């Protein structure tokens, strides 16, 4: 007779309980670490929980590399995010089965992908902000739900298990994360920091939740009764994992416990099932000291085993046989990466120079430290592409005339060669510009300058930015090239807001666009496709006018609260066409409007809905409450319907209570925010309708 834990006809809970009860307490404890030990007597292999899939399978060899998460957010395309989640899971399955077939159970080979990162990008200085879906809780929730549903699939067996991180109030500073206490009001917690997590748990049924390093209002995130109670209220039925080596921070940096054994006990008792790190090596010591009991270990063991069962790892027959090795980095998958890169790039400025007409150009200068850089395509938490197309290569492939290339300067050092004098590449850049009709200047950052603490190489050793300016050698290069007098198209590869400070003929924010980034850039520059990305974050004039980085209040942060200091607004992005909205109405939870392409070419754009509430508890400005990507032929008109969730009419009081307290609402529709700066920059007006409640 088949053992109960091997019987697919039983529920995952029944199977997990049966399996856990067959284990000794020592064996149960061995399953609570990320590198879970094998149980040979039951035929259970080792399992490493740590795998990454932020924008494609990461750190596990060859895989399709999509644009970094912030670039995916700029698409405002839930269907695309769902597709990317599906592809990531397919390739993770294929890689897992190949590795397992050859006896490889190492890190990054499992089916538990610790993605997406749905923290709020509240401050542009935060180095890990490019891992997120931006600054808006509604956008983050909608994209995150789509990504998770795509990754996990709709069947009884999960194709892969997604994980929402980092729960829940976590967005820098990186240098302080191991000791920092994020003080947040009940209103900000409910209004800004929790909605995306709530959506992923309740709507997407995300399988995992990862705690953060920092404390929240005095409680360590991986052992916070307040946060764990939120998950319980939402009906979370998956596993909870600590961020990596976060539990040791309890005694080393937070001072909430005295030693490693107390830290292990506190985390386990509070509800942290799985430890990424080595603190749970002391679980049995905590048991011996009476700090926990056997029931605590059993409860956590059942939860982690349940996830492995949901993945089909203990089923007699393998699942997802179609996820064969040749699906990895397939042409179809790379085509999706290219499409995402095209849709992610945001045209911030255009004086009419774009799109370029190749027939009118003899020579193009492609200049800058990011011009031929693979790092500028990757971001962090990335896989290895089987082919990269840098910005230079994409332009060379697309343009039949002469392309002059010059590095121009180092990304952040004052020289490119240690043996050279300072400013060693400026002369070459100037000569290339003088010999060309137009300059495509590729500046910005990469993951050596903005990223996670410990992973970056900047002067702060933390990954955060000190300000919103380009590094000094790049500023100098831009100044020198601007003085040449040739048209300059500025291509900014960065995962966050950057103010170039010097005016250019066109500015294109390309994020970290993935393996096909150069091809996508060329398609936009030469007009094969129209840019259609929208900013998922506010671009500020200067960091000096922002609140202190350690202040987690939302006042004067993000488009919902900022009143000044805005360079480019959230939701802004130009196209090569002109799509306008008219005749807005609202009925039965749905906004209806007429959308027309008044331009002369096919154009995609993002129609955005914003709502303004007269409640005293409403956000100062307005809030995104719906969006839809649409493509129209020249002169085409279409009726568009976008649902408006009932939660859009709610506001949050100082106690964190969410309710409909307003009586009059204004609903706006357009291809930008309904504020004067957005409408001025975009050249379009939002339409509006009043709603009474």
Strand content: 15-25%
Question: Number of helix segments?
Answer: 20
Mean pLDDT across all amino acids: 97
Instruction: Tell me which CATH architecture of the largest domain applies here.
Output: Alpha-Beta Barrel
How would you write the strand order of the largest sheet? 9-14-13-12-10-11
Counting helices, strands and paired strands, the structural category is: alpha/beta
CATH class of the largest domain: Alpha Beta
CATH superfamily of the largest domain: Glycoside hydrolase, family 3, N-terminal domain
Number of domains: 3
Oligomer: single chain
Termini separation (Å)? 62 Å
Q: Which stretches are low in confidence, meaning pLDDT under 50 for 5 or more residues running?
A: none
Radius of gyration: 26 Å
Q: Sum up the overall morphology in one term.
A: globular
- Could you give the count of β-strands? 25
Give a summary of the structure in a few sentences.
The chain is an alpha/beta fold.
Explain what the structure shows:
The chain is α/β, with parallel strands linked by helices. The chain folds into three domains: 4-327, Alpha-Beta Barrel (TIM Barrel), CATH 3.20.20; 345-537, Glycoside hydrolase family 3 C-terminal domain (Rossmann fold, 3-Layer(aba) Sandwich), CATH 3.40.50.1700; 579-692, Immunoglobulin-like, CATH 2.60.40. It contains 20 helices and 25 strands. The strands form eight sheets. A six-stranded mixed β-sheet has the order 9-14-13-12-10-11, with helices on both faces. α4 (78-101) runs antiparallel to α13 and α16 packs parallel to α17. The N and C termini lie far apart (62 Å). The model has no long low-confidence stretch (mean pLDDT 97).
């Amino acid at each position: 007779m088949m053992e109960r834990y091997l019987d697919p006809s039983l529920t995952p809970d029944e199977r997990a309980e049966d399996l856990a009860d067959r284990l000794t307490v020592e064996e149960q404890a061995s399953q609570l670490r990320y590198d879970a030990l094998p149980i040979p007597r039951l035929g259970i292999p080792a399992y490493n929980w740590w795998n990454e899939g932020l924008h494609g399978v990461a750190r596990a060899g060859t895989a399709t590399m999509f644009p970094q998460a912030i670039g995916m957010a700029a698409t405002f395309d839930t269907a695309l995010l769902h597709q990317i989640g599906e592809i990531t899971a397919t390739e993770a399955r294929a890689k897992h089965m190949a590795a397992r077939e050859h006896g490889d159970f190492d890190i990054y080979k499992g089916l538990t992908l610790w993605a997406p990162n749905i923290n709020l990008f509240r401050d542009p200085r935060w180095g890990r902000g490019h891992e997120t879906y931006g600054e808006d809780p509604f956008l983050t929730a909608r994209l995150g739900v789509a990504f998770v549903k795509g990754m996990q699939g709709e069947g009884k067996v999960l194709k892969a298990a997604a994980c929402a991180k980092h729960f829940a109030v976590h967005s820098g500073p990186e240098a302080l994360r191991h000791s920092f206490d994020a003080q947040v009001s009940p209103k900000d917690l409910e209004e800004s920091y929790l909605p995306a997590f709530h959506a992923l748990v309740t709507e997407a049924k995300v399988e995992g939740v990862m705690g953060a390093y920092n404390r929240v209002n005095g409680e360590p995130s991986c052992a916070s009764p307040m946060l764990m109670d939120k998950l319980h209220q939402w009906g979370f039925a998956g596993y909870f994992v600590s961020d990596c080596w976060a539990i040791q921070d309890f005694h080393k940096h937070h001072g909430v416990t005295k030693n490693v054994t107390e830290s292990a006990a506190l985390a386990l008792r509070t509800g942290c099932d799985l430890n990424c790190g080595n603190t749970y090596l002391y679980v049995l010591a905590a048991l011996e000291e009476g700090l926990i009991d056997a029931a605590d270990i059993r409860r956590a063991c059942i939860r982690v085993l349940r996830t492995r069962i949901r993945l089909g790892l203990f089923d007699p027959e393998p699942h997802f046989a179609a996820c064969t090795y040749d699906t990895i980095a397939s042409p179809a998958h790379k085509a999706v990466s290219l499409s995402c890169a095209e849709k992610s790039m945001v045209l911030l400025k255009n004086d009419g120079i774009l799109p370029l007409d190749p027939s009118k150009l003899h020579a193009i200068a492609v200049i800058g430290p990011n011009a031929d850089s693979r790092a500028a395509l990757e971001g962090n938490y990335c896989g290895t592409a089987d082919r990269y197309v840098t910005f230079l290569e994409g332009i060379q492939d697309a343009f039949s005339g002469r392309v002059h290339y010059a590095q121009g300067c180092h990304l952040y050092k004052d020289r490119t060669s240690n043996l050279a004098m300072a400013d060693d590449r400026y002369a070459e850049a100037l000569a290339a510009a003088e010999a060309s009709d137009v300059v495509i200047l590729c500046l910005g950052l990469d993951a050596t300058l903005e990223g996670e603490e410990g992973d970056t190489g900047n002067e702060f050793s933390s990954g955060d930015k000190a300000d919103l300016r380009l590094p000094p050698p790049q500023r100098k290069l831009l100044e020198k090239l601007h003085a040449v007098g040739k048209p300059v198209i500025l291509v900014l590869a960065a995962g966050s807001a950057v103010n170039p400070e010097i005016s250019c003929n066109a500015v294109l924010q390309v994020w970290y666009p993935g393996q096909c980034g150069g091809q996508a850039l060329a398609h936009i520059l030469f007009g094969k496709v129209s840019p259609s990305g929208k900013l998922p974050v506010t671009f500020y004039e200067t960091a000096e006018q922002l609140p202190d980085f350690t202040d987690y209040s939302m006042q004067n942060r993000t488009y919902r609260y900022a009143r000044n200091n805005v360079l480019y607004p959230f939701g802004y992005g130009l196209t090569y066409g002109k799509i306008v909205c008219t005749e807005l109405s609202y009925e039965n939870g749905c906004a209806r409007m007429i959308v027309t392409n008044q331009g002369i070419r096919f154009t995609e754009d993002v129609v955005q809905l914003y709502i303004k509430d007269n409640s005293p508890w409403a956000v100062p400005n307005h809030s995104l409450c719906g969006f839809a990507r649409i493509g129209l032929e020249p002169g085409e008109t279409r009726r568009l319907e976008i649902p408006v969730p009932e939660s859009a009419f709610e506001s949050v009081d100082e106690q964190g209570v969410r309710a409909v307290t307003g009586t009059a609402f204004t609903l706006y529709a357009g291809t930008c925010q309904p504020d004067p700066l957005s409408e001025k920059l975009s050249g379009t007006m939002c339409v509006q309708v009043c709603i009474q409640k």
